[in-house]
Amino acid sequence: MSAVTAVPPRRRVAGFVRVAVLVVVLAVVLYPLLWVLGSSLKSPTELASNLSVWPSDLTPSNYSTGWNYIEDLSFGRFFLNSTMIALATVVANAVSCLLTAYAFARLRFRGRNIWFALMIGTLLLPGHVLIIPQYVLFNEFDWVDTPLPLIVPKLLATEAFFVFLMVQFMRGIPRDLDDAARIDGCTPYGVFRHVILPLSRPALVTTAIFSFIWTWNDFFTQLVYLPSPESYTVPIGLRLFVDSGGQTSLGPMLAMSVLSLAPVFLFFLAFQRLLVQGINTTGLKG
Fold first, then answer.
1. pLDDT value at position 286?
2. DSSP secondary structure letter of residue 229
3. pTM of the model
4. Residues facing 242 on adjacent strands
5. What does the pLDDT average to over 194-213?
6. Nearest partner of 166 among 284, 5, 8, 51, judged by Cα
7. CATH class of residue range 72-281
8. Start-end ranges of CATH 1.10.3720.10 in the chain?
9. Which percentage of the chain shows pLDDT scores above 90?
């Protein structure tokens, strides 16, 4: 039996330094999250005087106070509104962007490259410049103060980023599979249904995760189209902890902020493996 080769001291030192650097970076990244978690359990007095991460005197009542902070309106209503809008947006983006990407990636039609370039060009257009004309249009439809302005446009594949992501993914699927399916009698719809759709699961999951996170954390667009407290989502609901005089109920607000992180964390955790696979196969990593 050959003796085990000893690791050179220089390599051991390099490995130790690498691990130490990663631990320091991880601590810096996690510190804000740990501070919010610890501060959500602090009393108002301790929040004003104690800068440590963990409270010396636990105050779990911040959670019940924050949940029922708004008179005649539970914070659970905001969670329900956010969940409905986020899930509807995920479905709308996944369906519309997948169909649009299939047309750009696999079908041949006149002006395909021009339309694709125009779609990519919309990524350069700031979304804020569209708010006024969109608001005027949706107000004419009497959609303001409903979830429709936040959901219906997603059915029209308005998220060019996700279309581009899926196009990049589909271009990596061998066209020989399409040809084999056509030989077996598949129409373009059959190719999409039996070949492209099953193989596009990583790209679909990546689209779903980003759609959910961006919609859940969106503040500006939801503030514009949802003026009534009964229609508020979680980001707008957190704003209610700041009154007109600038006074902030910091403890309950941080408690609800911690709860607002839970759906995003669980959604990401459930699809983490497919997200990594989707990013590795759609050209995002480069």
1. 43
2. G
3. 0.84
4. 248
5. 89
6. 284
7. mainly alpha
8. 72-281
9. 34
The H or E element that residue 193 is part of is: none
Residue 206 pLDDT greater than 90, yes or no: no
Q: For 21-65, write each residue's pLDDT tens digit.
A: 999 998 888 888 888 888 888 888 887 776 777 888 888 888 988
66's tokens: 């924050």
Identity of the amino acid at 21: V
Residue with tokens 């130490």: 20
- Please say if the pLDDT value at position 105 is more than 70: yes
Place of tokens 């969670």: 79
Encode 267-281: b = buried (16+ Cβ within 10 Å), e = exposed.
beeebeebbebbbeb
Query: What is the largest distance, in Å, between two alpha-carbon atoms of the chain?
Result: 83
Place 79 in a pLDDT band, splitting at 50, 70 and 90: very high
pLDDT at residue 235 is higher than 90:
yes
**Residue 51 burial (10 A CB sphere; 0-12, 13-18, 19+):** exposed
Looking at the predicted structure, is the pLDDT value of residue 199 above 70?
yes
Please name which of 135, 97, 155, 160 lies closest in space to residue 220, comparing C-alpha atoms: 135
Q: Which residue has the tokens 């050959």?
A: 2
User: CB atoms < 10 A from the CB of 6, how many?
Assistant: 8
* CA–CA distance, 167 with 160 (Å, rounded to integer): 10
Which pLDDT score is estimated for 60?
A: 86
